Every structure is written in structure tokens, then in C-alpha cells.
């Protein structure tokens, strides 16, 4: 093993040549292969890089299209606001998310009814 390390992990032929300078080992090539196969440094450098598996993206995200051509919508919870000296009021947020560019458009709505959603959609 020390001859393998001293030859800077250079392989079977080099390791066997260094050993044969001092000793003759029967079946020396097989012994050198076995020593190299147990060497952790040689195992590390003998590995081949793996190929990254890529997932299939939805067609809407791959095909070039204008922003907000494909939109996802959602509401988010009640937020309490206070404008000037007025009383506190609950409002909601309507989110419009572009499926192509991942851009987000936010509209403030007074409640979570269909009517207020349609008004927000028209403003959008």
C-alpha cells in the first residue's frame, strides 16, 4: 500500500513497478489491483459524474408566451388596515400569479365574495 501511495495513486502498472524494484510477488498484478480497489482516494477519482434527471415542466411554462397569458388566482387572509383617523377595517388580497414568468399582481378587495373577485379581475 505504501508503494501505491508513494507513486501518487498512479495505477496498477506503476505500483507494480515500484514493488518489483525490491520484491517479486507471485501474481503481483492481481495483488496490485486488489490494493488499488481498496484505496479510497483512487475510488473517489475513478467515479464518473452522474447525469442530472430533469423533470418535465408543464407546457405553459416551456412555450414562449406573453406575461399573464396563463394565470393562477388565490385569496389571502384578512388584513386589518387603518387609513388616517378612520376605524380599522378588514380587507383581503387577491393574488394573480403568472404561470410563465412567476410574476405576481396584487389587488386589495373588501371581502372574499365572487362580486369583489370579479371587480379585482376587471381591474387586473
From TrEMBL:
Organism phylogeny: Eukaryota, Metazoa, Ecdysozoa, Arthropoda, Chelicerata
Descriptive protein name: Reverse transcriptase
Signal peptide: none
Protein species of origin: Caerostris darwini
Domain Integrase zinc-binding: 4-45
Keyword hit for Nucleotidyltransferase: yes
A single GO molecular function term of this UniProt record: RNA-directed DNA polymerase activity
Keyword tags: Nucleotidyltransferase, RNA-directed DNA polymerase, Transferase
Pfam families named in the record: Integrase_H2C2
Regions annotated as coiled coil: none
